[in-house]
Write a structure and sequence with these properties.
Elements lengths: L8 E6 L2 E6 L5 H5 L8 E3 L3 H18 L4 E4 L7 H11 L5 H4 L2 E4 L2 E4 L9 H16 L2 E3 L8 H14 L5 E4 L2 E2 L5 E2 L15 E5 L2 H13 L6 H8 L3 E5 L1 H6 L2 E6 L7 H11 L6 H10 L11 E5 L7
Parallel strand pairs: 3-14, 4-5, 4-8, 5-7, 8-13, 13-14
Antiparallel strand pairs: 1-2, 2-11, 6-12, 9-10, 11-12
Helix pairs in contact: 2-3, 3-5
């Protein structure tokens, strides 16, 4: 890690995976013994209804507190309806007072990759949210993917998030993995993430790479052959870790693309139905094998889905 990285961040290596966390983070044992919660699907009729519900979450959070609101955007299809809606509002003055309070962050990225690559979440956010949104929000912070010091930049990213007081709303999806498992943000099964890890760098798997490329194409992103070639040459994924997810004040999940990613149906069923072990070692193994289950340890999750996510 770069010598310029914050001194209060510790580095942990698990195989080829690098995890960063704060020295004072709660212990893995304590959090894997935490309460387990059920997730009740909130079925919405259309993708646009999901986007409106997500916007309502931002308005509700803003009305409940004064000052800035820290939100983490979801990339890919899951939040595109929200981003289109917010982009429309940003082109008027109806939401200006709320927008100027937003401290906006991204939650994952492929690296190394040019920041202007069409498969970058930032480019997709710009396409859907529009220039007016970025001009009006208080700040926008993305994970840096075009540097020789990826670890150092990632450490500085989570330190900035921490200095702002943590996450008010974390928008999340659910990525399909083999045998009905899932990735959350881009925490991959078997990557060794624990409740002490705020962010990490993991090697790209073929399944995640194909999922990333296919969801960008399905979502209508503007990409070129050169963009795809550079994307396929990326070696790592930068991602939030379980510690950041568990500390978020509110998690809003959205799954709207089961028609183009049908494996999400099995992954979602497993998320809902898995009996999470009470034994700390067994629970840790479950969470590592199926990172989507970290959601089940959070007490404040809203899971927005379309009806087809529940189809057999």
């Amino acid at each position: 890690m770069s010598a310029a990285c914050p001194q209060n961040i510790r580095r942990r290596v698990v195989g080829s995976n690098v995890w960063l966390g704060f020295a004072e983070a709660a212990s893995q044992k304590a959090l894997t013994q935490a309460a387990v919660y059920r997730i009740e699907p909130d079925v919405q009729p259309t993708e646009e209804a999901v986007g409106l519900a997500m916007w309502d979450e931002i308005e509700t959070a803003a009305s409940a507190r004064q000052g800035d609101l820290v939100i983490l955007l979801l990339g890919g299809r899951g939040a595109q309806a929200l981003h289109r809606l917010v982009g429309e509002k940003a082109r008027t003055n109806e939401a200006d007072e709320l927008l100027k309070r937003l401290q906006v962050f991204t939650q994952d990225a492929l690296a190394p990759m040019a920041m202007d690559n069409g498969f970058s979440f930032v480019r997709d956010f710009e396409r859907l949210l529009g220039a007016a949104f970025f001009a009006k929000v208080k700040s926008f912070t993305s994970m840096t993917t075009d540097t020789d010091d990826l670890e150092g930049e990632l450490a500085r990213y989570i330190e900035k998030l921490e200095k702002l007081g943590g996450i008010d709303i974390l928008f999340l999806g659910l990525g399909p993995e083999a045998d009905g498992a899932s990735h959350l943000a881009y925490i991959k099964p078997g990557s060794g993430a624990t409740a002490e890890d705020s962010a990490g760098m993991i090697p790209i798997s073929a399944s995640i790479l194909e999922h990333h490329i296919s969801k960008f194409k399905a979502g209508g992103s503007t990409v070129t052959e050169a963009d795809e070639a550079e994307c396929r040459a990326a070696t790592d994924i930068l991602t939030l870790g379980p510690a950041a997810i568990l500390r978020a004040r509110r998690i809003v999940q959205s799954i709207v693309d089961a028609s183009t990613a049908p494996a999400k149906r099995a992954s979602y069923r497993r998320l809902l139905e898995t009996e999470i072990a009470a034994d700390p070692a067994e629970r840790a193994a479950q969470l590592d094998a199926n990172p989507g289950l970290w959601l089940r340890l959070h007490p404040n999750v809203r899971s927005l889905i379309l009806p087809d996510v529940l189809e057999a």
